[in-house]
User: Which sequence fits this backbone?
């Protein structure tokens, strides 16, 4: 599966936030060797972004 560009163009939030969330989620997925990585031909960031855009994983901004 490729990066969900159609979801990216429809996204109304802060693009920096979703980018950071996708990067952190990709790191988590790589650490635990998530099986979805294999389904996505080893493209960890694309798999993480798809999870975020499809609502499988959510993120929130923590106030310092």
Assistant:
């Amino acid at each position: 599966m490729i990066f969900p560009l159609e979801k990216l163009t429809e996204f109304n939030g802060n693009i920096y936030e979703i980018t950071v969330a996708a990067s952190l989620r990709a790191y988590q997925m790589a650490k635990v060797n998530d099986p979805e990585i294999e389904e996505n031909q080893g493209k960890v960031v694309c798999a993480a972004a798809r999870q975020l855009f499809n609502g499988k994983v959510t993120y929130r901004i923590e106030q310092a």
User: Anything to note?
Assistant: The two ends are 36 Å apart (CA to CA).
